[in-house]
Each structure stands twice: as structure tokens, then as C-alpha cells.
Design brief:
Blueprint lengths: L2 E11 L13 E10 L2 E7 L8 E4 L4 E4 L1 E3 L11 H8 L9 H10 L2 H17 L2 E7 L6 H12 L4 E7 L10 H16 L5 E6 L6 H13 L3 E2 L1 E3 L7 H7 L4 E4 L5 H10 L3 E4 L1 H7 L6 H7 L3 E3 L13 H11 L4 H8 L1 H6 L16 E4 L6 H4 L6 E6 L2 E3 L9
Parallel strand pairs: 1-4, 1-5, 6-7, 7-8, 8-9, 9-10, 9-11, 11-12, 12-13, 13-14
Antiparallel strand pairs: 1-2, 2-3, 5-15, 15-16, 16-17
Helix pairs in contact: 3-4, 4-5, 5-6, 11-12
Bound molecules: N-(iminomethyl)-L-glutamic acid and fe (iii) ion.
Subcellular location: Cytoplasm
Protein name: Imidazolonepropionase
Pathway: Amino-acid degradation; L-histidine degradation into L-glutamate; N-formimidoyl-L-glutamate from L-histidine: step 3/3
Length: 399
Amino acid sequence: MMSVLYDNIGELVTNDTSVGDGSPLGVVTDAAILVADGLVAWVGPSAAAPAADSCVDVGGCSVLPGFVDSHAHLVFAGDRSAEFAARMSGLPYDGGGISTTVEATRNATAASLSDNLDRLAAELVSGGVTTFETKSGYGLDIGTEVRSLEIGRRFTPETTFLGAHVVPPEYRSARDDYVRLVAGEMLAACRPHARWIDVFCDRGAFDVDETRFILEAGIATGLLPRLHASQLGPGDGIRLGVELRAASVDHCTYATDTDIEALAAADTTVATLLPGAEFSTRAIWPDGRRFLDAGVTVAIATDCNPGSSFTTSMAFCIAVAVRDMGFTPAEAVWSATAGGAVALRRDDVGSLAVGMRADFIRLAAPSYVHLAYRPGVPLVCDVVTAGTLCRPTESRDVQ
Ligand code: NIG
Ligand code: FE
């Protein structure tokens, strides 16, 4: 296999503390990176770069690991822009709009769901995402949940069974039956197509006992747990996630001091913050500083979905996390790359240490700081996945 040396990198973020400036981002200036067999083969200063079969001049730009979007809901149909507009006129977000998407998703063809995901995946890649997760949760019946996961699996190995998103309308007066269905027959049907199990543990969705019942059933089949917790109000979901050694508890908008202490003490569970959701629901900002100062591992993800956060832009999420959630630019970039990898329990992505998958992005900027400093500007100009340059910017028709 040919080796390629990417040279003349003005600022290289490696997330490898053993190289560079000793900071968590492991920044090397005037750097080069050697790629062979789709993996990082060498990293260091240009002046010490080894010979390679070919060389790419990066032009002094900033290069960083591809973003790892560890939380997204990408299999759905329909549009909820009117719901968003109503919220911006003062209506609150309570998750009630999920049923609108469930109806549209149940009525959609597999081909149209797949085409929609294809478009979103192209957006993610063009914005620098090289690993992403996607959930079911807009089917809420066995057939549509299985179909959603099958479609998701064609795009990513990180698929999550979220049959417990909300109780669907046909079970409103029999919620216990729905909880048993999710933890029984639906789980059995979805298990072959998923790596993870998730529950929306919040008011209006599932309580902590229901959440425990469903997650434990999933864990018993070999699925790995993660959960939505404390998005709409404080609750016991975050501590349940820690107790069950979930890979991640997501949202954490209303995390209490006790929740943060539990996360810090256990050190098994990432707190995944979702700036797009607070932005698009006009919610309070979770204070990232509290988590970071307590020593909690924090990830940032898009939560891309048609209701609460319809963005695929990790750069946007980084900018909001820096501006409104107390992150430094360095912390936000770490959380959107290495933090996402920890949240997905992946040890092959999220950093550019030797032996890692060669997933990286080139910014049309001299520093990663520009991701927050120049909000809304499409700075990601090249995306390399497993050593292969993607051409992500082809235009696509609107659905
Ligand atoms: O993560 N909170 C639960 N689920 C999604 C939103 C779903 C929707 O509104 O369609 C979220 O924000
Ligand atoms: Fe979500």
C-alpha cells in the first residue's frame, strides 16, 4: 500500500498527549502526518518527516481529527419547521412533536428514509464528521424500528435501539404494555441491527423505573447502554446511567451537583452535551464548566433530529459550546473529537496517534480556534477518512 505524507501543516491537533505541546490537544506546529494502509503511521515536525510514496502540501492550514458525532437521530421523514417557528414565538419544547415524526416515518418508504439519511450523512461528512451514531426511535412499532436500524446500519456501525423514545399514541392508555413490548419482542427483533440501547428518561417520556427495566433487558441481550437524561428537567436518569455503567448520559441540561459528583466519581460514563438542542429549543444552557472542572469526561454531539436540533454541523455546536456553555475552544474541540470517541467506546478514532484510523480534516484557517472565532463559516475544506480524501461538497437536491 502506498504511503502519503501530509506536509506543511501549520498546526496539527493530535489529541495525543505524548506529542506536541503537552496539552490534551497534543498540538504540533509545522507538522506532518504519514498515512499508510488507512492508518496514521507517523506524526511529528515536518523537519523530521520520513520519506513517503507521495506528498500532499497542506499549505500551512490547521489539521485536526475528524469529528465524532456520538448522538444523532437520522432515520426519519417529515418536516417540523413550523414547530420550530412556533417555539421561536414563545411555545415551549416538550417532546410532543415526536409523534408527528413517528407518523411520517411509519408512512415513508424505506427508499425515501434511506435517501434522507444519505443526504444527512453527506452533510455530516462535508462538515468534517468522520464517525457518527444514529438511533431508531421514530418507528415505535416493531417493523419500523427494525427498518430504521437496518437503514442506519448501512451508513454506520454505531446504531442505537431507541424504541423507548416516547410511548406511541396507540399505547397511551396501556403504557406498561408498551414498556414490556420494547423490552421483549421489539428488543429481540432489533437486537441484531444495533450496538447500543437508549431510553429517553425524562418527564413526558419514561420514568427511571421504566428506563432501568428497558436498559437492563437490553444489556442482558448484549447491547451497550446509553441514555437521554435531564433534558427537560432534573431527575434520576444521570445517576441511573452511572450505576448501569452507561457509555454516555446525554443532554444533562438540568444536571444537579449530585449528578456531576456521581459522574466524576465513577469515571465510567461520559456526559454528552448537545448545544444544538438548547439552541433550537431555546432552553437554558447547561454549564459545561461545572462538568469539566469536576473532571467529568465531556463529549459534544449534534443530536441531529427534525424536532429539537436539526443541525449536522459540529462546528456550529463547538461555537455554541464555547460562546454559551463555558468551554474553551480547546476543550470544545477535544469533546467533539476524542470525547465523542470515548462516548462511543471507540479506541480507533478521535485522535491522530500512530495506529489510529487516519480520519482528519483540514481547515481553511491557521488554527482550530477559528471554529468558534468564525461561527457559521464553512471552514472544513478537506475530509480524509481512513486515509482516503472524500469529496463531500457535491450539491444535492432538497427532498
Ligand atoms: O434528543 N429528547 C429526545 N429526543 C430528541 C428529540 C426528538 C424530537 O423532538 O423529535 C432529542 O432532543
Ligand atoms: Fe437525542
